[in-house]
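Help needed: design a sequence for this.
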């Protein structure tokens, strides 16, 4: 199977073996009313404990290296999967890495501040800059970029989540990969479902769909960071920018961006009862771990939608497992 569908135009710095697997949730599907869930295992990858950011980083890293960068610089929350995987990618490519971590979530336990992603970043040896409470991560990032440049270094600065149009190409390619797998497996997916944080993953999949000239499957994300309106707007903007980069000249209509914040709960990073239920359900039926911040909430959103009959009987749903499992260890004190 061809592996990188965009490589002629957009080379990558290879970090992962693709395609990642797609398989049905056979035990769980027996309990559901007439729909079949399949999972795309982007949580299972070769390095850094895996996750969606590695697909984006393949494109970002190539761009960084081609521009002569010696340091990767990015930002996220204290338990950011993106910063952990940026540090992983930097280690792989022999670049320095610095991360700016904001206190986005009002959880102050020792596990939250020292376990999970933070622990892995310490092991990776990345330089961490913790933003004071209520401080601006963007301002610290900008200041650090200026400092490094003044020292004669060549930082390559990436936005939160690696969700620039170049980063989102990783998921445009993933869309094409999914379609090739769907053909090979002789399964038509009615929906592709996923979590939405900084919107690059949804935007990339949608841009890939437009680039391919397809009208389905419907791509639907569950917002975990911002509300539905804000997330939908960001997704549309990023999908258009990524599609334009691919040479798609039309505008994607807003009605083709499907985002729901039904599973977000109180706020980003704050667990919900439905999330813990989904996490335990998938672990106890399939032996697969969701994460508490992204995939757990999205999976809970999908289960609620199934319950409410949103998907026609017989639908094959593809849930993208975006990773984030290390975050589980940060939530030890909050498990219900
Ligand atoms: C595990 C996991 N899933 C999903 C997402 C959301 O991806 P995006 O930021 O591209 O919307 C992220 C990133 O923030 C993540 O770390």
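Sure. Designed sequence:
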């Amino acid at each position: 199977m061809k592996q990188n569908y965009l490589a002629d135009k957009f080379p990558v710095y290879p970090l992962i073996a693709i395609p990642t697997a797609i398989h049905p949730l056979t035990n769980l599907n027996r309990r559901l009313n007439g729909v079949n869930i399949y999972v795309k295992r982007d949580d299972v990858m070769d390095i850094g404990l895996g996750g969606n950011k590695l697909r984006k980083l393949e494109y970002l890293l190539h761009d960084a290296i081609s521009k002569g960068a010696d340091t990767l610089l990015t930002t996220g929350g204290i338990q950011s999967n993106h910063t952990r995987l940026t540090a992983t990618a930097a280690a792989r490519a022999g670049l320095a890495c610095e991360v700016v971590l904001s206190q986005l979530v009002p959880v102050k336990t020792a596990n939250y501040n020292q376990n999970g992603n933070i622990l892995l970043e310490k092991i990776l040896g990345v330089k961490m800059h913790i933003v004071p409470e209520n401080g601006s991560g963007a301002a610290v990032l900008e200041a650090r970029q200026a400092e490094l440049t003044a020292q004669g270094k060549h930082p390559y600065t990436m936005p939160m989540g690696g969700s620039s149009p170049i980063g989102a190409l990783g998921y445009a390619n993933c869309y094409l990969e999914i379609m090739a797998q769907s053909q090979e497996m002789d399964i038509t997916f009615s929906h592709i479902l996923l979590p939405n944080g900084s919107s690059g993953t949804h935007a990339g999949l949608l841009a890939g769909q437009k680039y391919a000239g397809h009208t389905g499957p419907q791509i639907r994300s569950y917002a975990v960071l911002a509300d539905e309106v804000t997330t939908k707007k960001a997704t549309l903007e990023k999908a258009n920018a990524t599609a334009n980069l691919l040479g798609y000249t039309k505008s994607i209509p807003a009605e083709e961006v499907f985002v729901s914040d039904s599973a977000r709960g109180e706020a980003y990073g704050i667990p919900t009862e439905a999330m813990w239920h989904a996490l335990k359900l998938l672990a106890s039926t399939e032996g697969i771990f969701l994460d508490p911040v992204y995939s757990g909430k999205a999976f809970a959103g999908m289960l609620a939608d199934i319950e409410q009959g949103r998907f026609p009987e017989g639908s094959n749903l593809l849930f993208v497992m975006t990773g984030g499992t290390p975050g589980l260890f940060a939530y030890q004190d909050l498990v219900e």
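The two ends are 43 Å apart (CA to CA).
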